[in-house]
Amino acid sequence: xxxxxxxxxxxxxxxxxxxxxxxxxxxxxxxxxxxxxxxxxxxxxxxxxxxxxxxxxxxxxxxxxxxxxxxxxxxxxxxxxxxxxxxxxxxxxxxxxxxxxxxxxxx
Length: 107
Fold this sequence. Notes:
By secondary structure, this protein is mainly beta.
């Protein structure tokens, strides 16, 4: 299986409580939250599988409250696992490149 999906959009809610402490006076979305948004965008495509590794995460630019994220993903079989490569962008360009490995029994 190799498939490319583009167009999953996520709005970064400025009211999210994470912005109160990350960072006061200069709020940015923690990188882990962006990786979580990627996982949420692909999990329905991989029923019965779980993230077994974050193989790569390259953070290119900050994500600010109110940004709209565009998540483009590529899926590739890799034996007993699936590699998901994602590029997350905002209106200013790419902000994160991430590669997640999913394993477990695909249903």
